[in-house]
Amino acid sequence: MNTPTLIGSLVFAFVLVVLIGVVIRLMMRGWRRRGQLQDALIGTLPTVPDTVGAPTVAATRGQYLGCTLAPKWNDRVVVGDLGYRTKAVLTRYPEGIMVQRSGARPIWIPADAVIAVRAERGIAGRTIPTRNHDGVLAIRWRLPSGTEIDTGFRADDRTEHGRWLEEEEQQG
């Protein structure tokens, strides 16, 4: 390889690295700005109660897919740790629904805040191809700030979604 070609290659590589760095920085700035704008909408989450009754729907293992601003299934909430996917356990009690997330704070959804529990095809940029559109369990609920959000959960065994939908029919 001759010297001009080597220098040209190095300059090109340097420009490419700088360009990738700028793009990553802009993406991070956008994520933070979006979080600041949503902070007022979300406010503080309900606190987990000290005691709860016996579960009405047993613990369901799966993946927490994130929260979105209702009714926009693709408008991910990025405040705090609500926007990160993680393994989780979902349990329903008479007082509400507990989402225990791995590596993140638990989410408590009070029973009077639950608007609907339904099966969806996707949430928060995550679409699960299924025949009957039951790939994601979406829980729509109202925050203390008055904002409605959808919390997405995908059970490891999707047949367990049926237990949640049956319980919602009985509650509603």
From TrEMBL:
Name the chain's protein. Transporter
Protein species of origin: Mycolicibacter arupensis
Report residue spans for region: Disordered: 150-172
Occurrences of domain PH (ranges): 42-167
From the UniProt annotation, give the residues forming the signal peptide.
Answer: none
The UniProt regions of compositional bias labelled Basic and acidic residues, in chain numbering, are 151-165
What are the TM regions of this chain, as residue ranges?
6-28
Q: Which UniProt keywords apply?
A: Membrane, Transmembrane, Transmembrane helix
